[in-house]
Structures are given as C-alpha cells and as structure tokens.
C-alpha cells in the first residue's frame, strides 16, 4: 500500500511540494500565467509565433451575446465550446455533428440549442473558471483527428502532454479517453496514460488508475504498437512554446489533426505529476540534466538534445501472445 | 538565489517568539499550563483619623512589586475624597484630599498581591549616604564607641550591621547602648549608627501576612546596602533576610502615613489569602503599557473573548498547512475547514458534525433542483444561501420543539461558507462524480475535526491567548513548511506502482 521516500527518490519521482517550489515557483513567473490561463490569449499568441492551433470559429463574452450563438455556429458541422479560463478539461462541450435541431455529442447524446445556450451561460458566469470569475466562451473547429490513432481511444480526442522544461521537451505521454473517463482525457478520471519515448514517439508503458496496462480497456487494442506520426514536428512545436510564453516549466497539450498535423491545444503552467506514472520514471534526473544546460539554444538543438538523452525502450509487450518483454530502460 | 535571508527571517521569528514568550513567563509570571494555581493575598489597609473641620490631606505609602510579591490590582474606598497616586524615588504613595471634613474618618485601600518567588523590586539607584547626622553630648562619644566596637569585629557592611544589632540584644547591651536607647527608638538608632559609620541604611516598614488576620500593625525593619544590593535585618534579633510572609509596605525610609488636618491617625491592616487559577491571576495583573508587556489582557473583557478566538485561527491554519503539505489531504476550499472548526467550537463536535452533514446534504438536494432552473451563478449561490438559512431555521425550530437545545447552536455555522461548500460540492458531483465529493468533503471534514481538536485544546487555548510570541513561532513554522520540497504522505501511496517494477 505504501512505499518509502527513499524508493521514490531512487526513481527520481518529484512530488507536488517539490514541483511547486523548485520548478513552478522558480521558473514560472506569476505575471506570465494569464498567457496560459486564458486560452484565448494563448491562441492569439500562438498564431503570432506561427504555432498551429485549432481554428477559432468565434467567441461569446456576454450573456446577451448568447443570442448570436446560433448564427456563429451556423454552417459548422462540428465544434468545441471551451471556457477561456477553464482548467482540467472542465466545461468543454464537444459537438461532433449537427442533425437538424439537434447537436450530437461524441457519446451520442442529443442536445437542443437551448441546452448549448445554457452551457454557454453557465460558462460565462464563471462556473468552470478558476475562482468563479466571469469567463469567455471559445468556439473552435472540431479537430479531425488522425484515424490511425482511433483504435487507441474511446470517444474523445486523445491528446499528447509534453512537459517542456526551459524549452527542452523532457517527458511526454498520450492520454487516451475511456468509457470510465467519460470521453475525457484526465488520468484521475480513468483515462489511460501512455508514456512516450522522447526519441521516437513510441509507447513505453501504459497506466490506468495508476496500474500498468498493456491494452486499451474499451477497444482492447494493445498499446505497444502506438507510434505518434510527425513526432519531431510535435516536439518542435512544444519546445517553441518556451519562447512564446517565457514559462520555464510548462505542460503543453497537443493533438494530431489529420490535415494540419500536430496542433497546440492548450498550455498549462502547473502540469500534473501523473506523467511520471505513465512513463514509470521520475522527472528528477531529466530536469537536473536540463538545468545544467546553458540558455540561448534554438528549439531544434534542444529537441535534438532531448531526443538523444531521454531515449528509452518500451516496457510493453509486442502483441498479445508474445511473452518476452523488451528490457526496461 | 540564496535562501539565507529566508532562514534568517525564520530564525529571527523563532528567537523573537521564544524570547517574547519566555519573557512573559518569567517577568509576568504567566504560567505555561492553564491549571496552575497561584496564591493571592488580599490586604486591606484601614486609615482612621479624627478630622477637625479643616481641609485634610492624607498621604500613605503603598506597596510596590518586590521580592516575593507582585501587585495585581488595587482599589480604594473613600467617599467624598479626592485621590491621586504619586510615584517618586520615595516609592508609590496615595494622596487623599478633602476641603472640609469633621469627625471620625475612615479610608480604605485594598491591594491584591500575587505570591511569586521570582518577582523582583524594580532597579533603584544606589542610595545617598546621609551626612547630616548630628549627635548631642554625651551621645556622640557613646555612638562612636558602639560603632568602633562593632566595626572591629566585622568585615563588610552586612557583618557590621549584624554585629551592631548583636550588641543591642538584651544580654549583651552595654552602657553605651543603654544610654543611646533612652534617647532614640531602636531601629531609628540603628540606621543613624550605620549611616554614621558610612554604611547606607534605612528604616522600612513591613507587614506580616497571616491568613484571616485583622488589625495587624506594621513592624520596623532595617535595610542595609553593601554597595551592590540591599539586605533586610530584623532590628530586634539582628537576623538577616526576609521572612517568607513579610510584605514590605514602605521602603523609602519615609513615614507610612502622614495626615494634615486630622489627629489620632492610625492605619491597621487586615488580610486573607486564597488560591486562584494562574490564568485568572494573570488577567488581574496591572498591565504596564510597554511594548514588551503588550498584552491582549489590557483590552475590555468582551474584546478579549473575541481575540481568544482570533488568536486560535493561526493554529487552525497550521493544521491545514500540515495536512496539505505533509499529508496531501484534499479539501474543498483552502481554509473552509478552519471556519467550520471555529463553528464546531461553538456547537461542540458531535452536534456540529451532525448539523453540518444535515445542512450540506439537504443543500445538495435542493441545489440539484436549482441547477435545472438554469440560473446565473451569482443568483444560484444566493438562492443556496437563502436555502441554507431556511434549513438552519427549520432545524433550530424542530430541535427546540423536540427539546434538543444543542440543535440551536447550528446557527453558529457561517452560512455563506456553507452555501459555497454546497455549490462547490454540487459542481464537483456533476463533473467528477460522487467519489471525488466524498474525498474532498471527507478531507475537509477531517481537517476541520483535527483543527477543532487542536483549537479546542485547553493548553493550546491558554498558550495562544497568553503568549503572543507563540504567533511568531507559528509564523516561522508555517514559513518553514512552505519551504518543504519532500514527498507528501499520500504521495507515498500514489506513486507506489512506479517503484514496483
């Protein structure tokens, strides 16, 4: 049931307190937080830095603006409504397609326009924002996610979390939504976390509810064969977020679009620690190594450095019948 | 980035807090535990005199803090008289005055004294030797001989005084002493002789404290100064040292009572002793308004009661910090548990817990319905507040009808906090499911109960209220905890799977 601090230290696991004081406190300047806490600001900033993000359909910032919602949504086959200041995936409404009067969620649930309007109204009142402050609704185009990955996920879009420390992508995982997580990609709600090798973008290890997994609980597809296409582009995009925001310890959430490739979904100035569970390895050694590097290195060099030093072998079994696992890193 | 200034501040806070607390303990006799009993003497001085119809001025010496005793409170009863307290190098004195008085007059002065072995008299400048001593013939030669005899057998001022008094004792009284005693009072004579010999000395008045004693009179004592400290001598026996139960009433060598415009004046003392909880004894203490003696006890009683609660909040905050930083318990709202714990103090734990759970459970049901009405957030929370008030009212009335008076204390819950708790829990339920509500709600309640147990502990209440320095120590602890980068207890469980393979 319990482990010892010595064992965790040996694994290089960092705890919440250390993350807060040693990394977030030291490398993330408070005045930069609004850049990532407000998704609208992040999006506009990303556009300026040439970082691809999902297309913006429109915004609603006032209660009476909700009346315009139908007009804004008109003609779009699918869309996502997000609170600009939401956290942890709260308040995100995904509409996969529109059938006449009805808006269909990925789960198949049908919503009427007034349901959607109510959601936006709650969102503007600050129901999902930090501290309940008034919020803005972002309406984004639906991501046409890469079909090659659809076997690995149930409903929702899988996203890729890359921890970027001082501009170096230090650790990555893919979050696959499950029935248990209700299509959401939050690990504590039951999504599957798959640790990714920084060098190649292939799966290293899978966990659900903190226990290792070899396959997806709903689709039954094994995870070992998971390989992220365009991996280097994705890392470059993530690494570039350091120059864009100035935040030293950053969680970047990326998605893979069929047509546009890797896209930045959102940034997080307080990324969680579950990524260590998915990778079966602590962040400590990697962060220590990056702290020894000098400033002023281009994203390309940083990505190359990370790919060289943080390479690992998969712990997953190749195929369901094969018994011998590849040696752990 | 150097952490030195941080540790400097923490160290400074710790040292200052500890020093401040120890100072209060040592110099003001504030005990560390609430149960300690302290002996308190209540001494009443009754002044009697015959007024002659003229303006009268009565001047009486008052006791001050001294070795063995500390003055707590003093009162006077003297209808019609003007009263002022004077303090000079001659000690503290009370002066009563009246324009016209006739017949028998009575003035009362009562003082409460705390028996404290560590008490000391305030530092006084070394006394001036009196040079104005003149002896008439033939007393001058007698005095010189007495002094010389004692002088030769002594080594320092104290032994000299002892030898001198020895010569005054009945069996050894020489001719010279007998001659001198015809002219002077014993202790007055001793003081003269000592001063003559170049040893500063003075006559003081002491009061033997005996429980239940009435009409006690003052006795004369001689104090001798050896260049560093005063020593008290019994002029009759020549014994050095203060008897345990002797209170020095007047120590400047002046008259205890001076009456102008009256005759037949005398002062008598009655006294009794009782034991009192130390905390109460402290409360009665006269508060000197200096910075070091800065104390909540100088406030009116009502404000003191308020501060007693306010000063407990840092304890609650410390519990929250401990549980969140070292244990990793999740709570709904960072300091909500402290507010709930404060309410528990009013309601008692079991009633509080039952009431809290009932109100939140009822609130969640009603909040669930409100969410169908599609209201704006502020309006919805306001509606929940009114609902909470309604629930509390109904519970109060019901419990009163059923004769459960404890149920009435439910009104002590902070209603706005309850409403926000209900709102948060409700959103949590919708978004994360009932399990997360149980985790966070349970975490909040556990934190609240632990904070309550800490804040309701008599020892902790006593210490936070009586030692303001403890607040600095708490501050230092919280700062240190804010610097802790190690693992939380619950992380040892959370990250266990990683260490398994």
UniProtKB/TrEMBL annotation, chain A:
Coiled-coil residues: none
Organism superkingdom: Bacteria
GO terms under cellular component: cytoplasm
Positions of the ATP-grasp domain: 43-298
GO molecular function, one term: ribosomal S6-glutamic acid ligase activity
Keywords of the record: ATP-binding, Ligase, Manganese, Nucleotide-binding
Listed PROSITE patterns: ATP_GRASP (PS50975)
Any one Gene Ontology BP term: SOS response
Keyword Transmembrane helix: no
A Pfam family annotated for this UniProt entry: ATPgrasp_ST
PANTHER family, per the entry: BETA-CITRYLGLUTAMATE SYNTHASE B-RELATED, RIBOSOMAL PROTEIN S6 MODIFICATION PROTEIN
Protein name (Swiss-Prot/TrEMBL): Alpha-L-glutamate ligase-related protein
UniProtKB/TrEMBL annotation, chain B:
Top-level taxonomic group: Bacteria
Name of the molecule in the record: Transglutaminase-like superfamily protein
Domain 7 transmembrane helices usually fused to an inactive transglutaminase, residue spans: 255-498
Family annotation (InterPro entries): 7TM_transglut, Papain-like_cys_pep_sf, Transglut_i_TM, Transglutaminase-like
Keywords: Membrane, Transmembrane, Transmembrane helix
Membrane-spanning intervals of the chain: 305-327, 339-366, 372-395, 402-422, 437-455, 467-487
Coiled coil (residue ranges): none
Domain (Transglutaminase-like) ranges: 187-235
Phylogenetic lineage: Bacteria, Pseudomonadati, Pseudomonadota, Gammaproteobacteria, Oceanospirillales
Ranges of residues in domain Inactive transglutaminase fused to 7 transmembrane helices: 23-182
Keyword Cytoplasm: no
Organism: Halomonas korlensis
């Amino acid at each position: 049931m319990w482990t010892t601090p010595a064992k965790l230290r040996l694994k290089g696991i960092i705890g919440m307190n250390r993350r807060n004081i040693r990394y977030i406190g030291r490398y993330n300047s408070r005045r930069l937080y609004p850049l990532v806490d407000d998704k609208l600001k992040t999006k506009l900033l990303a556009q300026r830095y040439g970082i691809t993000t999902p297309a913006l359909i429109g915004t609603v910032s006032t209660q009476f603006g909700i009346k315009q919602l139908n007009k804004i949504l008109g003609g779009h086959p699918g869309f996502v409504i997000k609170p600009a200041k939401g956290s942890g995936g709260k308040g995100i409404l995904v509409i996969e397609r529109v059938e006449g009067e009805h808006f269909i969620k990925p789960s198949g649930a049908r919503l009427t326009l007034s349901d959607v309007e109510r959601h936006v109204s709650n969102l503007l009142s600050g129901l999902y924002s930090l501290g309940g402050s008034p919020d803005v609704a972002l309406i984004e185009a639906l991501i046409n996610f890469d079909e090659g990955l659809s076997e690995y996920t149930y409903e929702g879009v899988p996203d890729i979390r890359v921890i970027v420390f001082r501009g170096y992508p230090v650790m990555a995982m893919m979050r696959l939504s499950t029935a248990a997580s209700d299509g959401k990609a939050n690990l504590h709600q039951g999504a599957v976390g798959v640790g990714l090798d920084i060098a190649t973008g292939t799966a290293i290890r899978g966990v659900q509810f903190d226990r290792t997994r070899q396959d997806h609980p709903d689709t039954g597809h094994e995870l070992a064969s998971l390989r992220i296409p365009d991996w280097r582009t994705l890392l470059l995009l993530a690494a570039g977020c350091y120059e864009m925001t100035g935040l030293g310890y950053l969680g970047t959430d990326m998605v893979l679009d069929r047509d546009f490739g890797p896209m930045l979904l959102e940034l997080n100035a307080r990324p969680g620690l579950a990524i260590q569970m998915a990778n079966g390895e602590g962040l400590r050694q990697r962060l220590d190594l990056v702290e020894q590097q000098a400033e002023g290195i281009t994203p390309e060099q940083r990505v190359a450095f990370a790919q060289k030093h943080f390479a690992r072998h998969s712990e997953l079994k190749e195929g369901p019948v094969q018994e011998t696992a590849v040696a752990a890193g | 980035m150097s952490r030195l200034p941080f540790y400097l501040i923490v160290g400074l806070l710790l040292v200052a807090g500890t020093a401040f607390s120890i100072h209060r303990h040592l110099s003001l006799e504030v005990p560390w535990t609430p149960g300690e009993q302290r002996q308190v003497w209540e001494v009443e001085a009754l002044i009697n005199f015959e007024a002659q119809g003229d303006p009268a001025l009565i001047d009486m010496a008052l006791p001050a803090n001294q070795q063995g005793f500390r003055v707590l409170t003093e009162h006077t009863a003297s209808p019609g008289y003007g009263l002022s307290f004077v303090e000079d190098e001659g000690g503290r004195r009370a002066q009563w005055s009246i324009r016209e008085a006739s017949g028998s007059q009575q003035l009362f002065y009562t003082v409460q004294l705390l028996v404290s072995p560590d008490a000391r008299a305030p530092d006084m400048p070394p006394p001036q030797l009196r040079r104005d001593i003149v002896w008439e013939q033939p007393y001058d030669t007698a005095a010189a001989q007495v002094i010389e005899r004692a002088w030769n057998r002594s080594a320092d001022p104290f032994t000299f005084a002892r030898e001198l008094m020895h010569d005054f004792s009945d069996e050894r009284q020489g001719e010279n002493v007998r001659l001198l005693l015809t002219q002077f009072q014993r202790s007055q004579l001793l003081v003269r002789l000592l001063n003559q010999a170049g040893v500063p000395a003075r006559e003081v008045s002491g009061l033997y404290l005996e429980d239940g004693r009435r009409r006690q009179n003052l006795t004369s004592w001689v104090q001798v100064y050896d260049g560093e400290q005063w020593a008290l001598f019994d002029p009759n026996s020549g014994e050095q040292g203060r008897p345990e139960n002797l209170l020095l009433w007047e120590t400047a060598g002046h008259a205890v009572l001076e009456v102008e415009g009256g005759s037949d004046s005398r002062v008598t003392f009655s006294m009794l002793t009782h034991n009192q909880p130390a905390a109460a004894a402290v409360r009665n203490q006269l508060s000197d308004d200096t910075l070091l003696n800065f104390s909540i006890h100088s406030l009116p009683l009502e404000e003191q009661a308020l501060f007693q609660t306010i000063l407990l909040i840092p304890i609650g905050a410390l519990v929250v910090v401990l549980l969140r930083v070292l244990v990793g318990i999740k709570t709904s709202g960072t300091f909500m548990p402290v507010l709930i714990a404060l309410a528990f103090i009013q309601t008692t734990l079991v009633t509080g817990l039952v009431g809290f759970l009932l109100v939140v459970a009822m609130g969640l049901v009603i909040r669930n319905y409100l969410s169908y009405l599609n209201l704006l957030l502020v309006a919805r929370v306001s509606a929940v507040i009114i609902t909470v008030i309604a629930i509390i009212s109904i519970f109060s009335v019901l419990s009163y009808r059923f004769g459960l008076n404890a149920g009435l204390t439910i009104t002590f819950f902070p209603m706005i906090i309850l409403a926000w708790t209900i709102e948060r829990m409700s959103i949590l339920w919708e978004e994360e499911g009932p399990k997360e509500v149980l985790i966070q709600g349970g975490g909040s309640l556990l934190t609240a109960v632990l904070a309550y147990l800490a804040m309701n502990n008599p020892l902790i209440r006593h210490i936070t209220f009586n030692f303001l320095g403890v607040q600095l120590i708490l501050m230092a602890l919280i700062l240190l905890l804010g610097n802790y980068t190690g693992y939380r207890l619950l992380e040892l469980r959370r990250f266990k799977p990683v260490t398994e393979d």
